TrEMBL record:
Complexes and interactors: Homodimer.
Residues binding substrate, per UniProt: 17, 39, 66-75, 121, 182, 191, 211-212
An example Gene Ontology biological process: 'de novo' UMP biosynthetic process
This protein's UniProt keywords: Decarboxylase, Lyase, Pyrimidine biosynthesis
Recorded GO CC terms: cytosol
Gene responsible for this protein: pyrF
Keyword Lyase: yes
InterPro entries assigned: Aldolase_TIM, OMPdecase, OMPdecase_AS, OMPdecase_bac, OMPdeCOase_dom, RibuloseP-bd_barrel
Family (UniProt): Belongs to the OMP decarboxylase family. Type 1 subfamily.
UniProt-listed Enzyme Commission number(s): 4.1.1.23
Organism: Bradyrhizobium ivorense
Protein's name according to its UniProt entry: Orotidine 5'-phosphate decarboxylase
Length: 236
C-alpha cells in the first residue's frame, strides 16, 4: 500500500514496552478497537512476545517487530523468513547493504515489510567517530537512506526531525516511521528530539510510534483516540 492511502487510525503504532505477555494482553484489552497496530521490541520480544505477535496477527492486528536484525546475510534471511511466518507487518534491520539485501530477498512473497534503521538516534558525530566511521550523522543517514531505497527496502525508521530530509531523498514510495512522538502536554521522558503527532505528520511521517504517552496514561484508550484526532486533523 502506498503511504498516502493509509487510513488515519492505522497510522498510530503503540509500543508495547512492557515486561510480560500478561501486562501486554491487559493493555491490548484496554485499548480495544482504538489501536490496530502494535510494536514489540527487545523487552517483550524476549519475554514471550513472539508467540503474542503471532496471536495478535491472527486476531487481525498489525504487528511491528522491532528486532533491529544485523548478521551475515544467510542468518538474516532465515530470521526474516521466520518473522514473516509469524504474520508480522513490519520488521526492522540495521541499514547495512548486505543486511538490507538479504532481508528484502527473504521477505519476497510475504506481506512482511522491511524497515531500515539508518543511524541510531542515540548516536552523535563523536559516537560515529568512536565506532570507526569518518562521516557525520547527517551524511551517513542520507547515504543509508539512498542505499535502502536502491535495494528495495520498504521503509525507514527515523526521528521526526529527520523525516522531512529523508522524505526528500526517498520520495513517497517508502514508509517513514517515526518514534519520539509526544502529544502536547505529555511528559517527554528520556526522549529529546520530539514532535507532536501533528508536526510529525506534517514533516512527512506515515506512521507514528508512541509508547509511554499511551501505555502509561491514566486512560490509554482516550490517549490513543486523542492522537487519532490530531493525526486526522493534520492530514486534513
Ligand atoms: O515511550 P516512547 O513513546 O518514548 O517509546 C518510543 C518507542 O520507539 C520505544 O519502543 C523506543 O525503543 C522506540 N524508538 C525510539 N527512538 C528511536 C528508535 C526507536 O524511541 N530512535
Amino acid at each position: 500500500m502506498q503511504p498516502a492511502q493509509i487510513a488515519p487510525r492505522d497510522r498510530l503504532i503503540v509500543a508495547l514496552d512492557l515486561p510480560s505477555v500478561a501486562a501486554a494482553e491487559a493493555m491490548i484489552d484496554r485499548l480495544g478497537d482504538s489501536v490496530s497496530f502494535y510494536k514489540i521490541g527487545y523487552q517483550l520480544g524476549y519475554a514471550g512476545g513472539l508467540p503474542l505477535a503471532r496471536e495478535l496477527a491472527g486476531r487481525g492486528k498489525k504487528v511491528f517487530l522491532d528486532l533491529k536484525l544485523h548478521d551475515i546475510g544467510n542468518t538474516v534471511a532465515r530470521g526474516v523468513e521466520s518473522v514473516a511466518a509469524l504474520g508480522a507487518t513490519f520488521l526492522t534491520v540495521h541499514a547495512y547493504p548486505q543486511t538490507m539485501k538479504a532481508a528484502v530477498e527473504a521477505r519476497a512473497g510475504a506481506s512482511l515489510k522491511i524497515l531500515a534503521v539508518t543511524v541510531l538516534t542515540s548516536y552523535d558525530d563523536n559516537d560515529l567517530q568512536a565506532a570507526g566511521y569518518g562521516l557525520k550523522v547527517s551524511d551517513l543517514v542520507e547515504a543509508r537512506a539512498r542505499q535502502a531505497q536502491a535495494i528495495g527496502v520498504d521503509g525507514i525508521v527515523s526521528s521526526p526531525e529527520e523525516a522531512a530530509a529523508i522524505r526528500k531523498i526517498v520520495g513517497h514510495e517508502m514508509n517513514l516511521v517515526t518514534p519520539g512522538i509526544r502529544p502536547a502536554g505529555s511528559a517527554t521522558g528520556d526522549q529529546k528530539r520530539i514532535m507532536t503527532p501533528a508536526r510529525a505528520i506534517a514533516a512527512g511521517a506515515d506512521y507514528l510510534v508512541v509508547g509511554r504517552p499511551v501505555v502509561e496514561a491514566d486512560d490509554p484508550k482516550a490517549a490513543a483516540e486523542a492522537i487519532h484526532a490530531e493525526v486526522a486533523q493534520a492530514l486534513g
